[in-house]
Amino acid sequence: MTREERIRKVLASGPADAGKGFALTTALMIALGAAGIALGFLVGGANAGWASILTGLVLAAGIGASGVLISAIFTLTNARFGRAYVRIAESFAGFMPVALVLAIVFMALGGTILPWAHAAEHLTGGKAVWLKRGFWDVRVGGALLLSFGVSIAYLYYAIRRDWAALPVKLRETYRGFVRTFAGRNLDGKDLEIERKRCAGRLEVLAPIVAMVYAITFTMLGFDLIMALDPLWYSTLFGAWYFIGNLFATMALLAIVSIVLHRPLGLGVWITPSHRSDLATLLFAFCLVNADFFWSQYLTIWYGNLPEETGYVMKRTLNGDLPWRVVSWLSLAAFLAFPFILLLFRRVKRSGVLLSMVSVVCISGIFMARYIEIAPELLGIAAPARLEALYVPFASALLTFIGVLGVGLLISMRVLRGMPVMPVGDDIFHAVHADEGDHS
Amino acid sequence: MSMTERMKPDIGAFSYREVDRDILATLGRPGKLYLALLAVCLFCVAIGAVSWVYLVLKGMGVTGLNNPVGWGLLITTFVFWVGIGHAGTLISAILYLLRVSWRTAIFRAAEASTIFAVATAGLFPLIHLGRLWVMYYIMPYPSGRELWPNFRSPLVWDVLAISTYLTVSAVFFFVGLVPDIAAVRDRTPPGIRKTLLKFLSLGWMGSGRQWKHYMAAYVFFAGLATPLVISVHSVVSWDFAMSIVPGWHTTIFAPYFVAGAILSGLAMVLTIVIPLRKAFRVEHIIRVYHLESMAKLLLFTSLIVGYAYGVEFFMAWYSGNVFEKAIFAYRPTGEYALPFWTMVICNTIVPLLFFIRKIRTNLITLFIISILVNIGMWFERYNIIVTSLSHEFLPHSWGVYRISLTEYGILIGSFGWFFLLFLSFIKILPAISVAEVKESMGFPSRKGGRT
Amino acid sequence: MTAPRPAELLGVFESHDAFLTILEQAGSRKVTIREIFSPVPDHHAVERLAGRKSPIRYVTAAGGIAGLVAGIALALLTARVWNLVVGGKPVMSIVPVVVVGFELTILFGALATLAGLFFFGRLPFVRFPVDAYREEFSLDRFGIWLECEASQGDAIERWLRESGAVRVERIGRADAAEGIS
User: Fold this and answer.
1) I need a labelling partner for A372 at 20 to 30 A (CA). Which of A29, A323, B350, B415 fits?
2) pLDDT tens digits for C13-49?
3) Helix (H/G/I), strand (E/B), else coil: A380
4) Residues 6+ away with beta carbon under 8 Å from C42
5) Which sign, positive or negative, has the C-alpha torsion C116, C120, C125, C126?
6) Are the beta carbons of A294 and C87 separated by less than 8 Å?
7) How far apart are CA A358 and CA A363, in angstroms?
8) Are A302 and C98 inside 8 Å of each other by CB?
9) Distance between CA atoms of B171 and B176, rounded to whole angstroms?
10) Smallest CA–CA separation between A298 and chain C, in Å?
């Protein structure tokens, strides 16, 4: 198959349409999200509601930036496997507006629940300077905008590189803001030169995306999550946050590519062996995530310093609320379960089994973020009964489902505006030519 | 060169026969340069040996170690050599599992440097013991008084981690060598050497049965060695992080040390491979593309190390912890400021030059930067270990550590030892994997090309 | 009267596609492949030879599990015996045991894999070299050692040459044939 034939084949099914089933499912998810928020605020109290919003925020921001990061990583490493997944990963930029809206809402209305905001007299050292409302808002907003801005620049060139590879007529079939955004002023230009120019820009932007992500998300991890306990700190916390994001996004990528396999016309390009490669990558990130968790836990346990252990004890011993249930569940979900199951070739190649494992992975990361945030916001409730956790946890879970619903809805909208495979990418063509295109 | 051409470092129009000839030619009679280098190494080893004997005879007082700095150059060098070993396993095992093509020509030399680096590192706990004849105390054997090593101690985890690493790397290394030993055996005329090689090659014939189990075992070795890359240096970092010393007790140590290890390991592989390929005239097999790929990986790990420095300093300020702030103010400005700034410049600033394509494809700049990085990484371990011990909690117990001549002698000896082992290896067994280079070239097809 | 001994032929190939073609067509020509030789790892050829996947993975898993158990046992049981409270931490605790267990899992897993490679791959192969082995097989030639009915010997030899073998030899002595299996 020549390059042109392959391009036509990608475009044969037209703009990606996730289908009615998807629309209904996301509508349901959004409804559940709204219910969750209501449940949190009306039944659980303001703190429970804001804990849900904040959990949703940190996860949405993470997924939005990590999607583009995954594509940037493939570009940086000249990776051959995973090229078929690049577009779907990039489309997760649709989570960015969700994160921004949640951030604005939280900063405008929810800021009063931040524990450090009204404990200024207890803050010593740099914290007294760092944790001040105005400065904090500018930092958090700035970090989100910077990371998202660089990601969007990357997306621009990635999509534009595809437009430059398409014959004019086929370009016409794609409408909407994505095409307007990335496909401007292409007429009358030498397309091959434009394509190469975009590819060159991507090579420059990919490391920038990665570095900006590392720095901004480290800071967001510190500011949004770690600072909730202003007396506690862990140098690895920022990295632990951003690796968790990457892991969750990769799991989401697996789920979306498997569930929407037929509607998006992926069958030709994604085979069980590609799925197996993605599963291997998921396994690797499961291990890295677990390693970062363990590095923190072991150091804190071993040093046994009261200023460090309090944080862990609150979440693992029977304290105010039985948080340890969530802690153990989270560990099982992001480490034990995927580690054991992803050892088996059958699981890695099977769409159904892999998507089930991926759901468990995402829920593990959700619970990890929740267990970091909620105990700081939900205060003391005696006696320590499991029932007291039901409402806040359910609220946060439903809110997260709602966030996923909105994010995926926008993501699939974004995906509709570009070819579902990176047709402008030389490596994509090389990989599929080598593998013998599945005609 | 287009993206796709760069991706497939096919060695072009060479045949299996030519590759075989070129690689096995490296095992020929050593030239003057080789013998000169060997002499220098032997001299360095002699210095090390004399220093060690002097240390054993006179006691640990001949080192600069005292209160408060009980760990100095010896432990610094120990961590340094363990770290150097990591690049070999990364290139050999992890890049194999990720199917990265540029690993093929260099992984054998990298693996060899791993084994020899870990073997060199393994000497240091013995040296540091002073009474090295009681080193068996650390081994878990049932004694009459029911004395056991304390398995809750990171030092004992270290014993396990490093012995495991040495064993697994050696096994992986040897298994990978077997087909190449067979190639050397078959090209050797009958005699004692050939008989020895017959034993060493385990009767390898490249038969279907042998290859089938070999390929399966190789994947498992790679899969088992991969977590070791992360875990071994994490365990070494926990020697420090498990304490409560300011500057040591911090959660970021494990990934920070692993990134640093890979950084120094890659730098050492570059330092070795750049002159090696010229001296052995295998520039068509180990190409600039391979060196450039290593340089990019080096840049990546250098950025991680720089990130870790930044986060540590930020957290010292943010936390307001008196002791953390004190140590992080002491490091850049105290008695050890020179090691500190050497570390920062060599590890985080110099490698930034690799963002420029011209610099990462020029052999001279690659070589110089790789040496600077290794200097920087040695100073990083020195900086972490010695400054933190010098400047702990109580001002009354602060003290300055000065390296003694004996310790310098042992440091020089360790470098001599490492390079001696490496030089010996490259003349006995092929430093480039014959079978895998052939495999990466594609099979010869009837039409005369390659499939 | 006993049946005539089967003819043993060794086909030496320079090109890989000719080598693979013979492997593919061997069944239809009623020849048995006794062994193949290759200077490089060859997934295609090994697949075409059929036979089960290498069982080494079970050995590795067994070794790994044994290592995990050994590591946990070593750390916990020695702590129980030498039960000083160190650093305020509990004598019997899972946290430090994880590291010990992990390292021994890897160690025993690797050693088990090595043992499995030796056992299943019949290494070290003490009867080296077999009749059919040629030194060029570690250089740049592929070899197929096959067996066919004595009467077919010439026809098979012709087939091998026509398919692209650079050389065909007759193997086997009057007495019992040396083998690999």
Assistant:
1) A29
2) 998 888 988 888 888 888 888 889 999 998 888 888 7
3) coil
4) B211, B443, C16, C142
5) positive
6) no
7) 9
8) no
9) 8
10) 7
- Put the strands of the sheet holding C7-13 in their side by side order: C32-37, C142-148, C7-13, C165-171
The structural domains of chain B, with segments of one domain joined by +, span 31-131+167-440
Take residue B50 and report the two structure tokens written for it.
């004399």
Distance CA A144, CA B248 (A): 32
- Residue with structure tokens 């295609």? C44
Asked if residue B351 has pLDDT above 60, the reply is: yes
Q: For residue B381, give both structure tokens.
A: 């371990």
Residue B201's contacts (CB-CB under 8 Å, 6 or more residues apart) are B178, B181, B182, B185
Tell which C residues from 40 to 99 touch B, by Cβ distance under 8 Å: 40-43, 45-46, 49, 51, 53-54, 56-57, 60, 74-75, 78-79, 81-82, 84, 86, 89, 93, 96-97, 99
**pLDDT, tens digit, 9 for 90 and up, residues A127-180:** 889 998 899 999 999 999 999 999 999 999 999 998 888 877 777 777 777 777
Which stretches of chain A drop beneath a pLDDT of 70?
188, 318-321, 379-384, 436-439
pLDDT tens, position by position, B9-65: 455 567 888 888 888 888 888 889 999 999 999 999 999 999 999 999 999 999 999
Interface contact B335, partner C, CB < 8 A: no
Q: Is B444 helix (H, G, I), strand (E, B) or coil?
A: strand
This model of the complex carries an ipTM of: 0.93
In sequence order, the β-bridge partners of residue B389 are none
Task: Lowest mean pLDDT of A118-122, B329-333, C54-58, C126-130, name the range.
Answer: A118-122
- Partner residue facing A304 (CB), from C87, C96, C99: C87
Distance between CA atoms of residues B269 and B398, nearest Å: 38
Percentage with pLDDT > 70 across chain B: 96
Q: Which two tokens stand for residue A184?
A: 């401007």
CB contact under 8 A, A127 and B319: yes
CA distance B19 to B438: 7
Delineate the domains of chain C, giving CATH numbers in brackets: 7-52+125-171 (3.30.70), 56-120 (no CATH)
